[in-house]
Amino acid sequence: FLSLSLQAKMSRPVQAQRLEGIDKNFWVDFVKLAATYSKANLGQGFPDFPAPDFLTEAFTRALSGGNHMLHQYTRAFGHPPLVKVLAQFFEKLLGRDVDPMTNVMVTVGAYQALFCCFQALVDEGDEVIIIEPFFDCYEPMVKMAGGTPVFVPLRPNPPKDGKLMSSADWRLDPAELASKFSERTKAIVLNSPNNPLGKVFSRGELGLIAELCVKHDVLCISDEVYEWLVYDGKQHVRIASLQGMWDRTVTVGSAGKTFSVTGWKVGWVVGPDRLLQHLRTVHQNSVYHCATIAQEAVAQGFQRELMLYGKPESYFVQLCKELQQKRDWLVQSLDGVGMKPIVPEGTYFLVADISQFKSDVPGVPSSDEPYDYRFAEWMVKNKGLAAIPLSAFYSKAHKKNYGNFIRFCFAKEEATLKAASDILQKWKQEKTS
Hints:
The protein is an alpha/beta fold.
């Protein structure tokens, strides 16, 4: 028996080939560092303030109310009250009819929505255009589907008047973007408002993307999870609302970002049935179903917001106003100590230039690691301030070009932001003394 058990030990590779090279994830390291060392965690993108009372009360009612069926399976592709209210919302936002049963699907957060998009729509050998910087899961998800990522960067154009740079100053080169489209291009991934930069793509920029999609018969996967977090009177334009785009666009949304409940993992996709039917196939053969009670509570939250749409009492309006104030406070704090912030038009992230702080953290000339990785690791270990290196949101070929920036999250309680500001002020005093 002993010899048989030794022979039974597997020697053949067990890892699926499609996982090759995508097993490592920088979040694992930086989450561990933040948990171990940080006094102020502005790294991960989640609020540390409470969810709105009306939403947690809705969850409590669903949990303890008389409808015991809320503890059981609901419709696999979305709890009927939730898909119905989402359809009502998107009819208003897109200016078109939206069928709750065929044009909306609920997912386990926006993350699973993206996974369904790539698995359902991308085939072996297809090219998918990804705009840099990008939310880091796009690249591995494309590769897992058998596709080839093709990258095109937003290029910074600093203002000449000495003002702080805005996320609007990072732009696509129209000719460069057009050159990435070919007969092999299946889709382009759009993220507006953009994580990590906070850029809100203008109607003109979206029009350029739409024109190229129509010309080359390309799909658009539009990640719009920060759709309600847009500042300074800017407008979030949904690319699915542009001419010729509804039929080729899947729009991804998130209750986690919309209602400040990232742990609930309720997301959705909105789009034409000709696309969503394939996403439903992936969904039903992976997770199949999302938590019923969370969907019920989110549905009630949206019903409230539909009645208050555009009014000052709306949570969407109040949260946006509150976060804009926090953004401005962090911008002022970073600028005051010499970390040059890029003022975001949306999301709850801002990127800062760390060039003036590089003397504190010596680089390693022979290292392949981008400088901002080293800086962010040193900063959390030695100063207790957690942030994320911007180069983590770039392809391998472009990481070192953007190694002088780090990303902060300002969707935090005032106490967290003040702790971060105190760390920065003390650091500045140490540098000048």
